[in-house]
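Q: I'm writing up a methods section and want to include an example of the input and output format. Could you take the sequence below and give the corresponding predicted structure tokens, formatted cleanly so I can copy it straight into the document?
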Amino acid sequence: MPRRARSAVRRFARRHRRLPVPRRNRFAAANAWQGLPWPAENPWLQAPENVLPGKRRHVWSMLSIQNHLEGYERLRQGPIISPLLAQPMLELCIQIPTWLWCAAGRNRAVARAAYGDVLPAAVLARRSKGGFDGFGAELIDRNRALMRDMLLDGELARQGLIDASAVRTTLERPLPDGEVIVELLALVDQEAWINAWRGRATLRAPSPLACAS
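A: Here is the clean output for your methods example:
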């Protein structure tokens, strides 16, 4: 109950916020994110005056979907079809009042009610499920030395984009929570992406012997 009360107070204090707070990786160097402009051109950020805070945050959370639909030039590889992200489905979800999301103390209450006659009782009644955190923590634990060398000796560190001291300290201790796991793996993902492009550049570059001939 105390935890719920603190969360309620924090949300009440932020109820009039007009824009979401940008999330940043805790391992990013301060000079890498300070002064970055917020993408003010996105019309989803601006909500009508009569929209309740919970629904405003609901729409804000949908902004992250764009990376999965339009990011990284995925369409060059093939069409992207996401039935659950189709416009009719999203419009239906937006129409559902926030106070029905956890009706009777059950998260996703509307979806559970919709499929109540086809899902097993154990699925309908469950209050927790496995997440990515455990797998991510195991992945880091098994590859701490590799990740430490990859990040501390990588391009992100050379460019001063990450807080190398924070990365080193975190990898020397037990991982504290899920957000740390996700943020560390995001840096590894970026460093691997850089190395992949470096490998392509090396393959494309002519050899000294070829140049001499």
